[in-house]
Amino acid sequence: MTDWLAVDWGTSHLRVWGMSKGGTVEARKTSDAGMGRLARDGFEPALLDLAGDMLGAGNTPIIVCGMAGSRQGWAEAKYVAIPCAPPGIDRATRVSTNDPRLSVHILPGVKQTNPADVMRGEETQIAGFLALNPKFDGVICLPGTHSKWVHISAGEIVSFRTFMTGEMFGWLSSQSILRHSVAAQGWDADAFAQAVADTLSRPAEMAAKLFSLRAEGLLNDLDQHVARARLSGLVIGAELAAARPYWLGQHVALIGEDAVCKPYADALSAQGLPVERTNTERMTLEGLKAAFKTNRQETP
């Protein structure tokens, strides 16, 4: 039994931490019952299946971030417009449940009107980072399927942009014609660095350089591991070229899994930028803890 539950509900995963009031993790459980596999009436049973044994007889606060708050999720948690601090429990959506032990609050996402952009889940990771680094002013980059660059000033999200870099890499490497030329794994650091540098200098040539990977494989037996690294360098280089107003001359913090963050850290370090790397799961949990602390402060 725990005092409250911290829940990260993504498209493909469900993570639950059983927490003490003081912020200590008493238990941790995960499952593949992500939003993408559930109908609206399946969320409560999925949570109870995974974490029902963490509940006591009374009412248990449950703070949820991520895709459970999407339009297709458990209950839609409306976006909060920038500029704003990462939203806390005061802006959460309360969910009606059949089990009286559950007191579910879904944290909202963040929106930007011009240019149009949204985030859902990343704002909680940002809240966690700011809870640990309250004086941070700079840029947070969250690499992934849809990478985000977020300008932070005075504890607020001022602006952000999303790039479909990870999704593009996945499609190009596994479904496009380049699948015949790119290895499923493997790496070449020099090839990656050169591709990033070339694309930063001449981003308009990226589409042509993508096809060159196929041509070099056919004509020059380009090593498929080199091709994979070069492909990564091309798409990340194009992202960095477009995001240059965010990172140029800034202190950049990366939030993400190590394997995803390392190429970004290498590419940014090559531009002479100081880069700080942090872990997704820790930042998510710290963000949920920050939301719970706000809830306690507002409760009489």
β-strand number: 14
Mean pLDDT: 95
Helix content range: 25-40%
**β-strand amount:** 15-25%
Total count of helical runs of at least 4 residues: 9
Keywords summarizing the entry:
300 residues; 6-stranded mixed β-sheet; 9 helices
Folded structure, characterized:
The protein has 300 residues and is an alpha/beta fold. The chain has 9 helices and 14 strands. A 6-stranded mixed beta sheet has the order 3-2-1-4-7-6, sandwiched between helices. Strands 12-11-10-13-14 form a 5-stranded mixed beta sheet, sandwiched between helices. The longest helix is centred in the C-terminal third of the chain and has 19 residues, at 224-242. The radius of gyration is 21 Å and the shape is globular. The mean pLDDT is 95.
Protein topology:
Blueprint: E1 4-9, E2 14-19, E3 25-31, H1 43-51, E4 60-66, E5 80-81, E6 93-95, E7 102-106, E8 110-112, E9 117-119, H2 122-132, E10 138-142, E11 147-153, E12 156-163, H3 165-174, H4 189-201, H5 206-220, H6 224-242, H7 244-247, E13 252-255, H8 258-269, E14 275-278, H9 280-298
Parallel strand pairs: 1-4, 4-7, 5-8, 10-13, 13-14
Antiparallel strand pairs: 1-2, 2-3, 6-7, 8-9, 10-11, 11-12
